[in-house]
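Two entries, shown back to back:
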Amino acid sequence: MEDYREFVGNTLEEAKEKARDYFNCNHIEYELMPPKFLTVITGKRDIRIKAKKKEFTPEHAETRQKIKQLLESIIKESGFSLSVSETVEDEAVRYVLAGEDVNVFTDSKGRLLDSLQHIVIKATVRGDLGMNIIVDAGDFKKEREDFIKSYVNKISSTVRRSNRPYITKPMNPAERRMVHMLVQAEGDLKSESQGEGLYKKIKISRVTNNGNGSSQEG
């Protein structure tokens, strides 16, 4: 598309930051582009993306309002002392729970939080709106996302060094999506979800000689 432009960085975040600076906008939408041949051969894994300024439609606004209202209704009817705030990010709209009962949603590795997010999405989102919905409690998922970035970096180094696949622990859909994106950005690695249900493992391995470097979510 004509309104997309290409940006290159040493990391995905660096490429995204260049796009934000260019468009003078905090919210962009982007697609990863295949690495150039010499990038893989030399081990220099520059990340290429095409990006444009993120535009929100009336349908986006309506869905976001429904999500916030549903979250507030569930919290009120359940008797929790919590507030809900909304933050728009590049890839997602994040709804953050805050208050004295926030720890209820971060116990058991946040599984109650994952269930709440799953219910809200199923009840309000129809089709593909082009935005990821995240329901967080304080900085619980933010901190988890930072951990996943570091985790994928370590796994990538391990897979390259050993030339053997690595299988992660079970992850929820949002975490798996993040891992697939990070692995795809590496250029010489691929990922594939394994298992059934909400929580699945991910197999990360080297790209084969036929050039199959796609990431698969299921």
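entry 2 starts here
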Amino acid sequence: MSENATALREQILALAEQFFNQQFAGKAFEPGTSPVPVSGKVLDASDLRSLIDASLDCWLTTGRFATQFERQLARFFGVRGASLVNSGSSANLCAFSCLTSPRLGERQIRPGDEVITVAAGFPTTVNPIIQNNCVPVFIDVTTPTYQADASQLEAALSDRTRAVMIAHTLGNPFDLDVVSNFAKKHKLWLVEDSCDALGAKYNGQMVGTFGDLATVSFYPAHHITTGEGGAVVTNNALLKTLAESFRDWGRDCWCEPGKDNTCGKRFEWQLGELPCGYDHKYIYSHIGYNLKMTDMQAAVGLSQLKKLPSFIDARRQNFRYLYERLKPYEDVLLLPESTPAAEPSWFGFPIGVREGAPFGRDALVSELESRKIATRLLFGGNLVRQPAYQNVKYRVASSLARTDYVMRSVFWLGIFPGLNETMLDYVAETIDGFVAAQKTGGFMPVLQS
């Protein structure tokens, strides 16, 4: 790059920072008027600067920023490799699909094989199992951790079981001691869906490093964002190669975009029934996809990653603050608990309305929403009751009674770093007034700003 171009680039980037600081200056929160989002991206001027820096390369697809982001993300996890994809859902698809590779020999997952998972969660933890013609086997969850009930694993096991694929729901790790030992005992693959749990730990070890593969999401609701985006994380070199093959059209070649002959014998391969010397860049060993991330997205992720520790701290602090404010209502509200030995990286604050409470979840959610406090249900509730799964082959290993409770009575509130104590106080005060009115049958008080 010429000296003049470098100077112009720096001028553009400096102006971008000025623009961000002027255009996106924060506004004071006004209770009842300003929204309290359940989640959202937290960006600053450095993120915009990084985004524009990447765009000025005019490379557009995966490039230098993606390479740096993958390396730094792998370093954050302390693993061998992180492979960027275009969403957390794609990460799940890519991670599970790579386990169907013939290169895994007798451990290859084949159509009709069973995979243990949970029904109380997000659909794209389960969908890759179905999309690969395998059979999900559902176990129940525990409350109020909302994690897989690991005591049901042995009952779910059959001679067709080949893997366990479970999410760390809302940033709270599932029982990794029991689940990982179960997987090792029965020689099963373990895929950790860590999309909600970036930075969580279990017994001091980073979540996402216990299984064979893990996935993360960079959607705006998550711990850091690239807009759309995700990653597959693994400490296994072969699985990394396979995941990237499925991500990159199913090709056998592992050259990065714009690179040639990384293997040193591009025109010397003999694979399948192709003629010897067929260009390795166009040899396909898997039925793959194109799930790559753009370099502009990676540039934002690289900038966001620097802020991840502070984001995690803010989520934990907001969780503790809201928990203490809501403790007086434990007689009617089931407040969340972390899994023993876990250090959650909280994604949200789940609340269950107890059986016998003088109100139901829907009434409380309606009140919160009417006061501009956003809420979310715990994803699909019970996935087997969703319309999409009515004609899908699956097996249920228990009654899923607690999963049905989640479907009927649980919702969650935001605790992301964009919220402050003033906002959380407003949330708690709204619940104060609602619960008091429901207990007495009296009139709902007007909150003071």
